[in-house]
Each structure stands twice: as structure tokens, then as C-alpha cells.
Amino acid sequence: MKILSIDTSNYVLGIGLLDGNQVMGEYISNLKKNHSVRVMPAIQTLMNECNVKPAELSKIVVAKGPGSYTGVRIGVTIAKTLAWTLNIPLTGVSSLEVLAASSGRHFNGFVSPLFDARRGQIYTGLYQFEEGRISSIMEDQLIMTTDWAPKLNELSQNILIAGNDLPLHQDILKEILGDKAVFAEITEHNPRPAELALLGRNKPDEDPHHFVPNYIRLAEAEAKWLESQSNQKNK
Amino acid sequence: MKAEKDQLILGIETSCDETAVAIVKNGREIVANVVSSQIESHKRFGGVVPEIASRHHVEQVTIVLEEALRQAKMDIDNIDAIAVTEGPGLVGALLIGVNAAKALAFAHDIPLVGVHHIAGHIYANRLVTEMAFPLLSLVVSGGHTELVYMKEHGHFEVIGETRDDAAGEAYDKVARTLSLPYPGGPHIDRLAHEGTPDIDLPRAWLEPGSYDFSFSGLKSAVINTVHNAEQRGDKIAPEVLAASFQASVVDVLVTKTVQAAKEYKVNQVLLAGGVAANKGLRAALTAAFSGLKDVELVIPPLSLCTDNAAMIAAVGSILYEKGKRSDLTLNGNAGLDITIHNS
Ligand SMILES: [Zn+2]
């Protein structure tokens, strides 16, 4: 059972190979560089190193967002195409869930992974590990940090906050949450592709033809169009 | 004697608002040609919205791939090479085709060839008739207006291009002025046939000997004509305006194409690009070249004028034969130059 995992949803480019109960290899970089140019060569290099042929893969797991629209689409396109053409299962995992699992597997409390979404907003959600199993406590969402922090403050346990974009939001979180906020170490901010593969291994398969990213947000033009439609109705 | 093995190229095209996959045999014969158009989705916005186009491509790409192989009754292992549009176009849209092509090429160890979109439009003609060099191609689409000279297969020389708007852009803007629905080109073409070109609109000939084009002055003249009439309380018949506008565009396109065909002593003139579907342009070119016995005019059927992947596979066939290959670092390039194919 060889699982290839692909994460291009944010600046971190992650490729993982999981064989049964062993992580064969991982490629991770955290660079503001073009995913489209680098992801297929990274997959090729890792698979060559591990001496795994495409036909030997038994499943593809992809980080399905949220994140950069273009970034998520690159990984999802590759994952869909590989799964379809190799006729193997495809599974999507929340990009936030991967980050939560990469930092908070043994944290006693809640985990709030985050990606910056500009203008004071973050993509985030709330996760918790219980006996090695991760569950979603609050769904992935796009929210102002100033609105998210008070929600976290109502919780009874400490909250681990992780993500490479943390420095952009840390002051606000610290101010509102005080000691309740536990900030992950810099080595815990990269979503790990092997975690992605492991999470995906236990999730149901999806149809590659109908698999789409989870953008969370509508395209701007679509949102404006819907707004103008409902304004007309209300007139 | 044993026949040589057929060459089969799978083409992928996602540069704008069509998700397209095709399979072409020996560079000339369409075995499968699938186009999934998003035009209905973009109509409500009055034009193609790049983010929405990209989202549609991700939804469609494997479905269209499977449909093409199903139509061809083939397996991916029958394919000799994968050709994909690497540019120009909307970068987010291009990335879907490029990455699907790379994944497919990697999964089955099939050679990969990046193709220029306009080279594709020109090679749509090879699916109709064999090319005869040297040749000249008039490429007219929403984003392009150019005259391309080819001395041989896979070699492209741009001898004239638009300095401002593409012809198709001018059509869309004039259509908007006339409050016609998107896409406006076909509506103008239809209206133009109902009216007479009685309004004298400018023709931008530029410097003598230049094969470049300019349509922004014409576009402004149309808008001014409409505004001036409104201020006088007149209303210009839209069919007269459409006919006059189309007459100006077609006049410049045809005259420059005929001049270039003579100067470069070409054997063939190929019409290419979405605006090649325009009936007025087709008729005028046919009339102009009927007097030039030594030059063959080729006009592809409408289905091959608009974006499709058979045309990309047709270029891919030649490039593959010439030994051109792309590696897994292939990227979408919004501003790709057609001369990349020249060796
Ligand atoms: Zn085109």
C-alpha cells in the first residue's frame, strides 16, 4: 500500500510517500517559489529516490485547501489526473487539518492551525486529538483574527496555534487570549506531507472526476454577481 | 511493404474558457475532439473571469480527458506524445492543462511537448488540408491580430501584429456600445449582414509597407459616432453601424493580407483564430484571393477556428517529429512568444 501525498496549497510544497506503516520519504520546502514548475520534478525525484514506479502507487492523497487558489488547484489537478489515469483511489484532506496534525498530535487541548488570508483575515478551524484520533471541533473558515480570538477565548482548554503566518497575527491572539494561547515552535509550522498521507489513508475515497478544491470563498466576481441578483429581488 | 506505425498525439488546451482534449493521428486526422465550453457561465459577467475559468478547468479536466480516449476507443498507452498549450493565455487557466499534461506524461512515461496557442490556431488548417510552404497565416482572435509567415513546418515569423487592440477585442467593445450580449463578435457579424456600410469609419493603414494593425482608433470612432448621434437626438441604426465597423476591420485585414501574400510570394494563405468564424471576413478574403490564382486560400470550418485541442495536437505532431521535448518543469506562460518553436 504505497500512498503518494501532495500539498501545494500554501507556500509549503510537500510531497510524501507512505508505504504501509512506514514513511518512505518526504520532500518539504517553505519558499515563495513557483509550485507549478517545482511540484512534478519533486514528485519524480522523491519517487526515484524511493524506487517507486507510478504504477506501484495505490492511493493519492491531496491537500484540498484552503489556501492560495492557484496553489491548491495545481496540487488538486495533479492528484486528480494521477488518480484517474492510474485508476487508484483519491482522497482530499483539509490543508488546515494537515497543519493541525503536524503540530498538535500530542497537545493536550485544542489546535487552531492558520494561514494568512490578507486584510487581517485568516483561514482557520479548530481541531482536537483524542487517543491519537483527530476530530474537527469548529469547521474550516475564513475569519478576521479579531473575531476568531474571542471565540477561542470562550473555550475551557488551552489552544495550540500553528502556521508559518503566525507572526502576522500573534500579537492580536496573545492580547486577547493571554496564557490560553500556546504558540507552536518554528519547526512545527510546516504541514507535513507524511501526516497528509496518514490522514488521507483513513478517509473515504472520492471520485477524481468530481473532486474539486475547497476554496471556502466564492470567486469575487461570483460573489458580487450573487449579491446583485439578491439586491434586484429585494427591490 | 509494412506500413509505418501511426503517430498518435494527445492534445490538451485550457488557455481561456474551453477545456479541450483531442487525439490526432499523423498530424492530420482527428480521431477524437472534445471541447467543454464555459461560455454560459461567463455570459453573466460580460466576459471571461479568470478565476472562474480556472475553477471550471479543474472540474472538467479529467472528464474531458476520459471522454477523448473513449471517443478514440484508445488507451493512454497508445499515445506517442502529449501536447499541451503552455501559452499565451490566462495563466491560472493554462496551469490546469499544463499540470494535468505533466501528471499524465509522468504516470505513463510519455514524451511531453509544450505548444504555443497561436501556432495551434494556424495548424488547425493542417487538419483541413496539407500545408504548402512558404505560407502566410492571418490570425484573428479575441486576443490576437497578426500576420505570421512560415517558411517551413514549426517555424514562425510574425511580420505584422496589432499595436493596440486585437480585432476580436474591438468587436467586443463595439458590441458593448451597441448593448449586444457577450460574446459580441457573432452578433456584430449577423447585424452587419442586415445593414449597409453607410458610415465612413477610419481605416488605420499605418506607415506604408507596415503589416501592423491598429483598431483602437476605429473603436473610438464608433463610440463617438454613437454619442454624437445621441446628443443630436438621432439614433443610428445598429445594423448600419455594425456593417460600417465590420467593413473597416475587414478592409484593413484583407488588404494587408493580400499585400503580404504578394510580397512574400507565398503558396498558401491560412485563416486562423476565433474571428475566422466571421462570415464577412471569410467572404471578403475569398473574393480577394479568387483573383490570385497562384495562392491557395484555406479557411477552416467554424469548429476548428475557435479554441480546441486538435489544433494543439497538430502542432505537437510536428514538434514531436522534430525531436522537441518539454520536461516536468514546463510552466504556463501568459506572454509566451511564438518564436520559441523556431530552431
Ligand atoms: Zn484561441
TrEMBL record, chain A:
<dbReference type="GO" id="GO:0002949">
    <property type="term" value="P:tRNA threonylcarbamoyladenosine modification"/>
</dbReference>
<dbReference type="InterPro" id="IPR022496">
    <property type="entry name" value="T6A_TsaB"/>
</dbReference>
<dbReference type="GO" id="GO:0005829">
    <property type="term" value="C:cytosol"/>
</dbReference>
<protein>
    <submittedName>
        <fullName>tRNA threonylcarbamoyladenosine biosynthesis protein TsaB</fullName>
    </submittedName>
</protein>
<dbReference type="Pfam" id="PF00814">
    <property type="entry name" value="TsaD"/>
</dbReference>
<feature type="domain" description="Gcp-like">
    <location>
        <begin position="32"/>
        <end position="225"/>
    </location>
</feature>
<dbReference type="InterPro" id="IPR043129">
    <property type="entry name" value="ATPase_NBD"/>
</dbReference>
<dbReference type="InterPro" id="IPR000905">
    <property type="entry name" value="Gcp-like_dom"/>
</dbReference>
TrEMBL record, chain B:
<keyword id="KW-0819">tRNA processing</keyword>
<dbReference type="InterPro" id="IPR043129">
    <property type="entry name" value="ATPase_NBD"/>
</dbReference>
<feature type="binding site">
    <location>
        <position position="172"/>
    </location>
    <ligand>
        <name>substrate</name>
    </ligand>
</feature>
<keyword id="KW-0808">Transferase</keyword>
<feature type="binding site">
    <location>
        <position position="278"/>
    </location>
    <ligand>
        <name>substrate</name>
    </ligand>
</feature>
<feature type="domain" description="Gcp-like">
    <location>
        <begin position="29"/>
        <end position="313"/>
    </location>
</feature>
<dbReference type="InterPro" id="IPR022450">
    <property type="entry name" value="TsaD"/>
</dbReference>
<dbReference type="GO" id="GO:0005737">
    <property type="term" value="C:cytoplasm"/>
</dbReference>
<dbReference type="GO" id="GO:0002949">
    <property type="term" value="P:tRNA threonylcarbamoyladenosine modification"/>
</dbReference>
<comment type="similarity">
    <text>Belongs to the KAE1 / TsaD family.</text>
</comment>
<comment type="function">
    <text>Required for the formation of a threonylcarbamoyl group on adenosine at position 37 (t(6)A37) in tRNAs that read codons beginning with adenine. Is involved in the transfer of the threonylcarbamoyl moiety of threonylcarbamoyl-AMP (TC-AMP) to the N6 group of A37, together with TsaE and TsaB. TsaD likely plays a direct catalytic role in this reaction.</text>
</comment>
<dbReference type="GO" id="GO:0005506">
    <property type="term" value="F:iron ion binding"/>
</dbReference>
<dbReference type="InterPro" id="IPR017861">
    <property type="entry name" value="KAE1/TsaD"/>
</dbReference>
<dbReference type="InterPro" id="IPR000905">
    <property type="entry name" value="Gcp-like_dom"/>
</dbReference>
<keyword id="KW-0479">Metal-binding</keyword>
<feature type="binding site">
    <location>
        <position position="189"/>
    </location>
    <ligand>
        <name>substrate</name>
    </ligand>
</feature>
<keyword id="KW-0012">Acyltransferase</keyword>
<protein>
    <recommendedName>
        <fullName>tRNA N6-adenosine threonylcarbamoyltransferase</fullName>
        <ecNumber>2.3.1.234</ecNumber>
    </recommendedName>
</protein>
<dbReference type="InterPro" id="IPR017860">
    <property type="entry name" value="Peptidase_M22_CS"/>
</dbReference>
<feature type="binding site">
    <location>
        <position position="117"/>
    </location>
    <ligand>
        <name>Fe cation</name>
    </ligand>
</feature>
<feature type="binding site">
    <location>
        <position position="185"/>
    </location>
    <ligand>
        <name>substrate</name>
    </ligand>
</feature>
<keyword id="KW-0408">Iron</keyword>
